[in-house]
Write a structure and sequence with these properties.
Blueprint lengths: L22 H44 L3 H15 L2 H4 L4 H12 L8 H4 L1 H5 L13 H13 L9
Helix pairs in contact: 1-2, 1-7, 4-7
Length: 159
């Protein structure tokens, strides 16, 4: 009798399963889910925060394409301001007070804006005439575009 014939085959151990995961893998998964959730939340908040700015810039570009009067730019700025600030604080502003308000909103701690008040004559010359006829120039559009970009615009709820 052959002694080797009595030997049994080699039994391999059962393969190691990926489940259940160790505690460290669960922690990594939880951290990744939290980071992903926070990133998605931040992006959605940014989109919500900049929505009014994007809409205002799009409407300004449309006005620039069509060619408009300075009064049309005032109307656009007034609509933007009324949707971003308290109606009681801004609805009655006109003339130099309106231009100062616009400059104050575009100013920051590092930089003071005076684009509107420095060119008050160009902005108010035809404002109260029955038939406005001063066409908006490139400088008017640039001033409005800079103001929209530099002013933090957030819609006011429950006006």
């Amino acid at each position: 009798m052959d002694p080797l014939a009595q030997l049994k085959d080699i039994h391999l151990p059962t393969p190691v399963s990926a489940w259940p995961l160790s505690l460290y893998w669960w922690l990594v998964i939880i951290v990744l889910v939290l980071i992903s959730g926070l990133a998605i939340y931040a992006v959605l908040q940014y989109i919500k925060k900049t929505r009014l700015t994007r809409l205002a810039l799009a409407e300004l570009a449309l006005l620039q394409q069509q060619g408009c009067e300075v009064n049309d730019l005032h109307h656009l700025l007034k609509r933007i301001v009324l949707s971003s600030f308290s109606r009681e604080a801004v609805a009655s502003l006109h003339g130099d007070a309106w231009l100062r308000f616009l400059d104050q909103q575009a100013s920051s701690k590092k930089r003071m804006s005076s684009a509107f008040i420095d060119n008050a004559a160009a902005w108010t010359l035809d404002l109260y005439s029955a038939k406005p006829n001063i066409r908006a120039e490139a400088s008017h559009f640039k001033t409005c575009q800079d103001w929209i970009k530099n002013t933090p615009l957030m819609p006011v709820e429950n006006q």
